[in-house]
Amino acid sequence: MDNVINTVGIIIYATLLYTPPLLFAAMGSCFSEVSGVVNIGIEGMMTIGAFTGATVAHFTGNPWLGFICGGLAGMAFGLLHGVATVQFGADQTISGTAINFLAPGVAIVTAKAIFNSSDTIPLEPTSKIPTLFSDVFTSGTAWSNFMKNIFSTYASTYLVFVVLILVWFVFYKTRFGLRMRACGEHPLACQSLGIDVQRTRMICVCISGFMAGLGGACMTMATTNQFRPTSIVGQGFIAIAAVIFGKFRPQGAMLGCLLFGMCSGLRVVIGTSSLNISAQLISMIPYVVTVIVLILFVGKSHVPAANGKPFVKAK
Amino acid sequence: MKKLIALLLAVVMCLSLVACGASNDTAANDAANNDAATTDEAAGEATGETVKIGMVTDVGGVNDKSFNQTSWEGLQALAAEDPTFEVSYLESKTDADYASNIESFIDEDYDLIICVGYMLADATRAAAEANPDQKFAIIDDNSCEDLPNVACLMFAQAEASYLVGVVAGMATETNTVGYVQGMVSESMNQFGVGFISGVLAANPEATVLQFNANSFGDPTGGSAATTDMITKGADVVFHAAGGTGNGVIEACAANKVYAIGVDADQSPLAPEYVLTSAMKRVDTAAQDISKAVKDGTFTAGTHMYDMTNGGVDIAPTQDLLTEEMIAAVEEAKAGILDGSIVVPTTAEEVPEFTLDDAE
Fold first, then answer.
1. How confident is the model at residue A228 (pLDDT cuts 50, 70, 90)?
2. What is the average pLDDT value for chain A, to the nearest integer?
3. CB-side exposure of A51: number of CA atoms within 13 Å?
4. Is the dihedral of CA A239, A240, A242, A246 positive or negative?
5. What is the reported pTM?
6. What phi and psi, each to the nearest 5 degrees, are found at residue A261?
7. Which residue among A238, A293, B26, B349 has the highest number of C-beta atoms inside a 10 angstrom radius?
8. Cα A191 vs. chain centroid, distance in angstroms?
9. Test the A interface: residue of B16, B231, B232, B266 with most A CBs within 10 Å
10. Fold assignment, A2-296
11. Which residue of B has its CA nearest to A2?
12. What would the mean pLDDT of B94-122 be, rounded to a whole number?
């Protein structure tokens, strides 16, 4: 019985550890995609956010300032993507790919300039995103371990779910959310109703970069304590997959991120157990499950009709 | 107006791409500046001909907190101490860079090219066969030992792991320690085999929880696995898992238990919780082979770095170790040196090591 409680506790713990960076980035991706701008540069925006967050937190000692700056750095690259694609109608996939090359390059060059190394200096525990309730739950019995593993987690994990509710509200309960979604479906109709499509899309791409930056900062300021060139490897693309999985809805993307996180947790639990299964097979679990669920249970995804199409103002 | 903005933006983008592409060159320039400095000193002291040593990193880069960095620090120390050495490095960003980096050192008539890591084995072999007069050294690989111009610098990682195993066995209060390995391979297994033997030698009651992350770049997985081990009672966790190990150390610090680092002294990552580190003195090896080239005593084939020549050791940071632990480590070292302790190196010799069975 204790074993079962422990195992379930660890799976939930691992899920909550993997999810926040993915979910922040996935929510960012949602904003951009529903307004009609394909943002494949999420990965790059996460990388620059991861670097900036860790750097600012190191120099100021203030984790939240670092976290916000991580978001702003992502936003700067979002703006770049927005100017290229929304303002000048450049191909969105190419611009996003360029950002995926550019952002890690900028991060590493800057790291070399500041730290004389491609890694940042490890953060002091006080400059890291704090763990909540670490004193409330102590280890001991199986149940107290369970509670500790689940609830004594980084503040960013709690934050991401709060932000998710906010994002859901903005999407479906505000005028901006409606306009934003309309811009992704039929921009011409929007324009005829007096909505500034380009401005709306520009705002969405910037929010997208901001969120991706926060996701990156979670990775270097909570899960680990420094930026390395390998800090962000593929999380951005998994986030984009989660968005498609969730049919371009933030709550759906959350399910996608949680599923991926849970499978990764399962991988760890099976790996540390005495079950004799090849590590290569275990490592496949998250990806195989994602593919199977996509095929079997997720019906046809509704892609925003004008997604990926540059909008040129009608005269 | 719009065209002007577009033009400006294009210029900015081009510039940043140039900046980004220049990362390699910046490093090389730094190195070149260092070289210039050393050469000047050399000329000033007029101590004879310069010996040019070139180092090619693997994809970890020169600041990897591991063997690339340690090798480069060793070479820099050497150049600082003896100005006849002129040292330089080239970073490999992808596997495709190995051959071209080696080639550029050959073109510039370097006396010795040090290739860091077994990932460079194929490129080194190709270059060594094509340039029989060029001297090479490769770290952590002995597949080139048949070539007359390649020195293979090998480390007895099992011995270093054995020492930290002894420390872990003594430090644990729950008689449970954890071990996270980055990849299952003959050379990586040596870490686990040595560690487990050390733990059991110091504490026969202890159990070792093991996890194969199957990745050197998954800190989240390392962190989750470590928390799992800690929940199961582990209070000391050793990792031999590169970037994944970053998560291991992080999880140990979060749960206030001890972590043990690998390759370099990893104490700075979490000074209060990194108990010790299993160190490979790659710096010593790089210096030795460079000196051998200068003295004309360079020999090809395998050069084994183990306890007898100070090639492996525990980290110099020992603030968290008790006197008993330090004494036990010294005793283990003496035992290994006089042959009374033979550290196993293969999975077959240590049945407690379970990661290999999964194959």
1. confident
2. 88
3. 26
4. positive
5. 0.79
6. -60, -40
7. A238
8. 31
9. B231
10. ABC transporter involved in vitamin B12 uptake, BtuC (1.10.3470)
11. B232
12. 90
Q: Which of A118, A272, A280 sits opposite B228 (nearest CB)?
A: A272
Tell me what pLDDT residue B196 has.
93
Interhelix angle A42-60/A2-34, rounded to 10 degrees, is: 110
- Is residue A145 very low, low, confident or very high in pLDDT (cuts 50, 70, 90)? confident
Q: What pLDDT digit, counting tens, does each position of A169-183 carry?
A: 999 999 999 999 999
Please tell me the predicted confidence (pLDDT) of residue A26: 95
Residue ranges of domains in chain B, CATH in brackets: 27-37+49-155 (3.40.50.2300), 157-279+313-358 (3.40.50.2300)
**Cα–Cα distance for residue pair A137/A194, rounded to 1 Å:** 55
Chain A CB contacts of B211 below 8 Å? 268, 271-272
Whether chain B has a CB inside 8 Å of the CB on A258: the answer is no
Q: Which two tokens stand for residue A309?
A: 């199409």
The more confident residue out of A276 and A282 is A282
Give the C-alpha separation, B82 to B59, whole Å.
29
Query: Tokens 């968005």 — which residue?
Result: A243
Contact A102 B21 (CB under 8 A): no
* pLDDT exceeds 50 at position B27: no
